[in-house]
Amino acid sequence: MHMFESVKKYAKPFETVDDLDPLLAAIGDAKYVLLGEASHGTSEFYTIRAELTKRLIKEKGFSIIAVEGDWPSCQSINRYIKNIGTETDVRGALESFNRWPTWMWANEEIIDLVEWLRNYNQQTSLKNKVGFYGLDVYSLWESMDEIIKYLERTGNSGLAQARNAFSCFEPYNRNNESYAVSAGYLSENCIKEALSLLNTIQKNKWKYDDEEENSLNMEVNALVTVNAEEYYRTMVLSDSKSWNVRDIHMVEALNAVMKYYGEGAKVIIWEHNTHVGDARATDMKEAGMVNVGQLIREQNYPEDVYIVGFGTNSGTVIASTEWGVDLRVTNVPEAQAGSWENLMHKAGAFNQYLLFNDVNRKEFNQTIGHRAIGVVYRPEYEQYGNYVPSVMSSRYDGFIFVDKTHALHPLKTGSLVF
């Protein structure tokens, strides 16, 4: 059981983020720090990432937070923390997260970080203000709305192409599934119109440049239009192809933000472990799937990228029993025997972190089951599909283990089911 001995040897206990100095030292001068989570509904994953994020901003000059969320909704946080526009209430800013699963960003845990960021930005010069951006691909209709609204307001180039794209998508009544079926099975699609819109916006983006970041906003919303079209078209035909479209889009959107911020920009990325932990170290590789962590490593120097995974042994989580239904507090059973989380728990039933480095990486190079909980979670079936075979020291550079975790606190408690 030599991996268990290695966990005992290298894992260190921690109580607060102040105890994670060695992790910050290991991050060094990296420009991309990816912070994972084993679920989208665990309070501690959010609060620990928030505290780490504050330290990275204050101590290492990070100025971008990029998350697994929709671009238009995350813009409401970005505008709030940069004091752009009229919203002066954090809860009002979070109301724009109205697409299921809303709890991923409309939760109590994120409020403290958002208020901290607004306060930090008020004391910071314009060029060093921290931004908050959503990298996901789902917001096809909302992104087109944003483009048309802006172009109608300003009379800038591209309105004809935007209206053309919109009218192509219009018959589907903002229903992703009906577009997916039509485009996937009947080959009736809007590829041409979406590409024409992106092309026009990229050519004219200098015309949209202003202090409210409209050139970036327009460019990413046009990228979403093209990539969401492809995502929904491939969704009905192939899970692995649509997964790749989504993760490749997230990196394209990230690269647009990095380019906008310019030389020396540093980004903190918050996404699920399945997106940030290098896919090449999991069974996703055999399925032909790539992910954000892999792509960022492939596009950058090794010392510029640092990936941290997160996990738990047991506790509670916010999740749903099926896609699109009410959220509930769900019990997370103790980790499966022989899994990574089980090894860490057996090494010590307390919070720990483990840094993988040149000295110890080879001690963790066996494949082991590593738990992943989605927004849909049925614990009774956990052993059949919630453990991803992983080589942990290749998948991540560091790992944070919270022995017992608690459910996130969603803002809208009206739909909470116990």
TrEMBL record:
Pfam families: Erythro_esteras (PF05139). SUPFAM superfamilies: EreA/ChaN-like. It comes from the Bacteria. This is Erythromycin esterase family protein.
